[in-house]
């Protein structure tokens, strides 16, 4: 096998597809027996949409967006549409993102600036949740004939200089290159001995879709208080909570209905009652770390295996897809023999500084959010996580 990718999330799927298109023999090993149902990213940015467009996948993503917008539209309880931060959006203005809940209005941008002008037919991001994105990418990978071996955990690795011998729960695997796309607790990164320095978490957040007995007690959009913040919407039952009380006691414990309800009650100052969780809820922190290198011999890292940070701004998924697109053609070229192995040094040189910038950007948002408590405000925007 030319390349073994560890991790069947969006990053691993994109990378495997790019390698297959280059003619490389590639397989995916995934620890989970079934795809995760946990809620994660809620949208893709322009570079990710461009990547999908280049592979003919954008129409499928846009269909997902249409279905999402129908659900969001059915949830609207007010006639006007307010951005986070309390300021009213001007009629016809276009949301393009936010910084710590402060709206970024695309209509205030000078799009005649050549550095900002679109260079492709893709004119914006798309509201595509990670689960749906994984489904369409899995179908893409299947069409390319890439095997996905689920329920297989990596337990050891030995870089022999001309390949990597990988120990797994399904037996040994010999591969030319090994790429860890296996998340923030990457086994590949740990076994390769790659350091993961950074800053410890100071907050705990929750993301869930729940059945709510008394939703009228919650304000739409973001609401801030001295206890933290919460967001209700934009989909029915979708809640996000943020508490600046340090990391959770046990990050590995399943997220329960009671945990989400307690957090929501605490930050909202209400006695809101959740009756059921729809799907698996997610617990997250502002743990911010980056691998000391993205490449060590024939072992490489991409996505959360290379960098982790808070979900504010929705950069994690998109940053990882960018890693995969950058590494995919380079590793494919090396495997095919028309580029020297030295080309792979540009992967670390190009992607690690960008990852460091995103970590600083998300840390800055946390710093703003931890500042002077804001007057409770509410509003609508695209999901931040």
Tell me what the structure shows.
The radius of gyration is 21 Å and the shape is globular. It has two domains: 3-85 and 120-197 and 288-367, FAD/NAD(P)-binding domain, CATH 3.50.50; 204-285, Alpha-Beta Plaits, CATH 3.30.70. Strand 13 (228-232) and strand 14 (238-243) form a beta hairpin. The strands form five sheets. The protein has a six-stranded mixed beta sheet with strand order 5-2-1-9-19-18. The protein contains eight helices and 20 strands. With 385 residues, it is α+β, with helices and mostly antiparallel strands. The model is unreliable at 75-93 and 374-385 (pLDDT under 50). The protein has helices spanning 10-21, 46-54, 58-75, 130-143, 187-191, 257-268, 315-336, 345-369; strands at residues 3-6, 26-30, 95-99, 102-105, 148-150, 154-159, 164-168, 173-175, 177-180, 198-199, 204-212, 221-225, 228-232, 238-243, 274-277, 282-285, 288-290, 295-296, 299-301, 307-308. It is 30% helix and 22% strand.
